[in-house]
Amino acid sequence: MSQTDNAIAAVKRMIENGEVKPGDRLPPERELGEALGVSRNSLREAVKSLEAIRVLDVRRGDGTYVTSLDPSLLLEGISFIVDIHDDATLIEMFGVRRILEAASARAAASSPTPDLLGRLTEIADESALTQSIDDLVRLDTDFHRELATAAGNRYLSGILETLSSSTVRARVWRGLSQVGAVDRTVSEHAAIIEAIRAGDAELAAALMTAHVAGVENWLKSAASLVGDDGADAPLDGGDTRHLPEESS
């Protein structure tokens, strides 16, 4: 393990042990380096690395602070990876979504609240009336966000928010190109709501799994067809000639 890796591990231990807490300023560079037994150059490289992943915040002329360590902040690295996906990894992302969305539906159904059911029903009613694919995808995103938030796990909701935002274009394209996709989305949402209302966690999870798998399977089929004829795939953000504009 390099000196830089040692320094990173040492700062991590300081945070884990509560020696420094979110918002605290680290000791001066010379003092910290001596305490950790690493060179100033190694410490500087460690700080740069921890700043890049949003664990530390370097304020010029003021010092180096531990960030809030809020999940949304720490998950920004995943957002970067998601943003540079290709078609194959987009399908893999839907596989991850399928697992995590099922978990959020299961958690929501385990302790459904009137507020949650009211918000989900409101979204479902609006979805049934909308004539816009963009609006439907926006409402679908809201539906999944409500369930993830209801699960009460900020890391789960943060990861799902990142994955969901990266798949908007594919979901819009499916709504425009697959016969019955809109009606299917509306009916699947309604079934999930009823399972949550009944407190049937396993049914809610199973219905959510099928719901997300529908888009995942369509993507696999679309990618297969594209591979057969050699045309550009309308699955990612790289080529927008065949894609509708995303809603804001």
TrEMBL record:
It comes from the Bacteria. Signal peptide: none annotated. The keyword Ribonucleoprotein does not apply. InterPro entries: GntR_C (IPR011711), TF_FadR/GntR_C (IPR008920), Tscrpt_reg_HTH_GntR (IPR000524), WH-like_DNA-bd_sf (IPR036388), WH_DNA-bd_sf (IPR036390). Residues 1-69 form the HTH gntR-type domain. SMART domains: FCD, HTH_GNTR. Keywords: DNA-binding, Transcription, Transcription regulation. This is FadR/GntR family transcriptional regulator. It comes from Microbacterium awajiense.
